[in-house]
Amino acid sequence: MPPITLAALKPYIMMVLIVGIGPLGVGYLVLLERKLMADMQARLGPMRVGPQGLLQPIADAVKLLLKEDVIPGMVDKWVFWLAPCVTVTTALAAFAVVPFSSDFVITDVNIGVLAILALSSVGVLGIILGGWAANSHYPLLGSLRATAQMVSYEVVMGFAVVAVLLMAGSLSMVEIVKAQAESHRWFLFGAFPFGLIAFFMYYVAAMAETNRSPFDLPEAESELVAGFMTEYSGFRWALYFLAEYCNIIVVCSLAVTLFLGGWLRPFPSVTWLGWLDYAAPVGSFLLAGGLSLYLVKRQPRAFDQIVLAAVGLALLAVAGLFAWPAFNALFRGVFWFMAKIMVLVYSFMWVRFTFPRYRYDQLMRLGWRVMIPLGIVNVIAIGIVLVLKG
Amino acid sequence: MADDLKHTTGEATFLDANEIVLNMGPQHPATHGVLRVILKLDGEKIIGTECVIGYLHRGVEKIGENRTYVQFNPYVDRLDYVASVSNGLGYCEAVEKLLSVTAPPRAQTVRVILTELNRIASHLIWLGTHALDIGAMTPLFYTFNQREDILKIYENYCGARLTTHAFRIGGLQYDLYQGFEQQVKKFCDEMPAKVDEYEQLLTTNRIWVARTQGVGVLTAEDAIEFGVTGPMLRAAGVKWDIRKAIPYENYADFEFDIPTGKNGDTYDRYLVRMEEMRQARRIIQQAVDRIPDGPIMAKVPKVVKPPAGEVYHSIEAPKGELGYFIVSDGGLQPYRLRIRPPSFVNLQALDRMVRGSLVADVVAVIGTIDIVLGEVDR
Question: Which of A7, A147, A251, B304 lies 20 to 30 angstroms, CA to CA, from A362?
């Protein structure tokens, strides 16, 4: 038996952290989305629970947990029970190979990218089963759409990923990032401009994979009520929701790893930009902390003032930690990784609030007639470029 | 059609997925209230529809027979509740015709301004909900914000925002408040930039164009056969607007164009309505500059008791031809009161417009018909 050291325990600690903090993070991602949506739609968003609505996710979670567990009479009980579990398990399991930084990765298997793609394929199964088991028309149509959409766009995503694999020469997530560090450029700009095309394809496919607008057909609210989730409520519904947002983080982290240099700071090989490693995290946390403290005065209730002041001080403390070289060296990778994910997530949300929804047949046409041929051509082009460069 | 549906529901099991019958509504996010559409589907393709209405039926026409002419006036606001001012205008004018009175010029001009504002408000709601149905969620909030300015004008004028009861038989009850002109002018000045913004979000948006062009086509012949009126008819290329064809109030004094489309599809209807908002602004701007002085009420007897006879009067409501047919037996109450609501007539074309298209198109077409169930069910 190997000795129990901190290094040996690290993967387990990270697992516990991801499963424990993940749902909370998802809750705050939802809050972020609602706040951003409100901002773009000239309104305030959640403001009641806690300061500036900061405790809304907790209130939502408690509500969903305490709700009555409704299983409609006509459903296939076992499958109905199993389906959300399948989806949420695969979504969380995908984090196993996500490298938050060179030090923070649960396991670096040499087929990490394949593992994520495989897990997301299994995740679709949960949606199909859920729609089927509900024994109702709207969920059935929703899961039919989900199946067709995800199967088609997985191919697109596959081609985009292959483009990166050609450049990196590895399927390991950590190795891919290291390859970007060695080649002194993100794969976004690799084999210019074909890396950009691959990223664009990945971006569109990722939106389709995670059922985000304008590709949110499986749960198109105005058409299919809630699609495959129509018959679900309470905690089971929350599991689907959790899985959906986990998947968003997973596809974004895959995008960051493959195209945007993972945990590397922008321009990793330009040494005189090294101050960014300190300035960016300290600056952003200072800004967030300062904003929280500034808003303390405006809170109507004493409780809110205390909470917001605590949040502000905590953020300032984190800013202070990042100024400490030892801490910074350990966590700067995580910071950059998360910052890049946030940029992508923000763009996902922005797209959602801006565009109308595609129709089912148009989506399929876009996938099979435009994206997949483009993907094939792109892979061949990258191959030629790489051969010519030697 | 009904027989077809019965056959399928009776014989087919759920797993026989060749044809399914999908019940859309009355509780559904995109049926604009309580419309129920029974869809017969082959996969996602629609092979038949049947509209079930009446979930909001209140017997308004019968109520009309049991109220005096004056008492019934507020009820018409509850028909098309997003265009209550237009409803009131149609009713008041119909009774005025029966009584052979005309509203004084000042009242007429104020009526035109308020009614055209109402057209803009109604089209704003249509735009927001239509875009929301097609998946663009943001325009809804912008349009509601802008509509708020119109509602504030109503609130200042008569105290109510939605069911305004703004007009009386023979003219107006209230004269204009201080600052009415400025408020209306301010709205008109701010409007073009906002409408341009909506157009920027949608008109050239590839997804929007893909979702609306060629969807729910209604040819001019079909439209006329179904009795479809309003923007839907004009989008099919028929230049028919009652404000021009049979002018009422003092619409003949104002310059405005009738926008028409070519293809009669959802996209053309969208463009026609957007242009109608701009034309309504044109009318308002002309009218607000020359509100004549004078009385606001014609000489109408305290007890409205029209002579025996019948009258049909129609106006161009935001959604199409809104007609009132009133039969008077010389008594205090109408003998028969029939309302021709545009939404009810336009809704008939739904089946023709969606047959052969996909489920998503039903939602787009219901949005583009611009129904208000209060008016369909009455």
Answer: A251
